[in-house]
Amino acid sequence: MAALFGKRLRRSAMTTAVAAAAVAALSASQAPGLTDTQNGRQSTADATPSPGDSATGNSPYYTDLPPLNSPTAPPSTGPGSPGGTGTGAHEAGIPATVLDAYKKAEAELAATKPGCNLPWQLLAAIGKVESGQARGGNVDANGTTLKPILGPVLNGNGFARITDTDNGAYDGDTTHDRAVGPMQFIPSTWEWSGRDGNGDGKKDPNNIYDAALAAGHYLCRGDRDLSQSGGLNAAILSYNHSQEYLNTVLTWLEYYRKGTHEVPDGTGVQPGDRSDGGASPSPSPSPSSPGTTSPSPSTSKPPKPTKPGGSPGTDPSKPGGGGSTSPTPPTPAETVAHIEDAGTGTLNATAGDAFAEQVAVRTENAAGKGVGTVKVKLTVVGDTDLAFSGGFKSVTVVTDSTGKATAPPLRAGEDTGEFTVRATVVDRKLPGLDYTATVSARQADALTRTGDTELTCEAGGQFADPVQVRATYKGDAADGVATTATLIKSKDDATENDKGPYFKDADGKAIRTLKGLKTDGDGRLQLPRIYADDATGTFLLRVNTTGGATLTIELKVTAAGATATPSASPSAT
């Protein structure tokens, strides 16, 4: 969005290489004032923002992740079959009108900006994380949401602070701005980026056709080519400037590329897990100011017949009318009595490696029967760099027909120790289920010297050849292993020697123990230069690693060579 709004306050700075590359691409393409023509006038809709800007004002988004697998069979088309069949079929279903809007936007961009190569699946991925595909496709026949979709108030309390820019025209708030519509544009961005995608002569952020086309143009600004990873990453980061947002959108993009299908409007899977930890914002009443489109009377549902006395209920004119309505059946989550482990093995891994075992849970009702289509949230508890694949600290998975759900693989960071992974049922207040994940330090079980040249020097000199070693673990290179090098007194006395060869510290002072060393990606480690004092003889250097690998190396110091005394010059005769 506009540069004056700054970075999202609740997100950490991006540190991964992909984020750095994307931001670099974003900066390199920055060109304030770039315009394109529409209706015979210049527009800033194609101007590339400075890093930190975003379409959404960096508002919260949904962090639900797709199932691990795409649908394995075509969707069923009969009544009550909104999600198809096969693993992940429900999440792969996109409401019909929403899907049509994405594909129409792709077609228009293919004609007007063919070099951008915008895939409709990218719009679907962004629409998923921004609004859950317009709240599961709750739109009318024209594509307008039945109720406006508004993000949290951007008042600086946990979010960016964006004071009102539209006098409440789009978001109904005359004090602060809020992200609006299924693609969550903030008003100031919509003012210049809005499009009329359904040909009704209006630019309504709560209309999925208008919003999808606007999002497409926003992503395709400048000379971006979304078929290239640099352009794709930069475009997504420009929409919401967060590495976790980028990861989430890319995950959904990959999922939708593997296969999707159409489901009836209003039957799409609704999101549940928001990035700021808050509850899903409820659709808000239409603002009284112009700028949003209310559903037309023809699309409104007729009021329910009332029972005698005026309360809604069954139609008294029908058999059995006038009685009480049938109770609303409980949701799957409401029938869950407890959450159980589903055969998760021991969670152990070495720092930097993926865990071999994955967390698997099962939701059961009071009778012990598995409950399907239940969302389970798994969270890495505490301050640690342990995370699920993709760098996510929490993920939401959906149980299958047996009540079982498996989380994505965990990956250990550099923090070692025991950490907790907690599983809870979304939309249900039940005790969680805790798992212990143990991360061990990187280790080696063997050390070898990479060269065989004898290490010698004269007293008071320095060793010409460096000492380089290689660490392995079970025959493979052991990278990142903590290593210590000590000049010891003897093979049987590993205490630090007080004479003989030595290293130098940063101040040039003699030291005989080096700690905090680590092997490189190939398990190699080259020690700093070694010097000799006046002591002569054979000395020992011992190298140790985490895991118990040990190597002892001989260093020989010889006496300094005799210096020839120059003879006296012959006297003149």
From TrEMBL:
Recorded hits in Gene3D superfamilies, A to Z, give: 1.10.530.10
Q: Which UniProt keywords apply?
A: Signal
List, alphabetically, the InterPro entries matched: Lysozyme-like_dom_sf, MltB-like
What spans are recorded as compositionally biased (Pro residues)?
68-77
Which segments show compositional bias classed as Low complexity? 289-299, 307-318
Region of interest called Disordered, as start-end residue ranges on this chain: 29-91, 263-335
Residues spanning the signal sequence:
1-30
Biased amino acid composition, Polar residues: 35-61
Molecular function (GO) terms for this protein are: peptidoglycan lytic transglycosylase activity
**Gene Ontology biological-process annotations:** peptidoglycan catabolic process
UniProt protein name: Lytic transglycosylase domain-containing protein
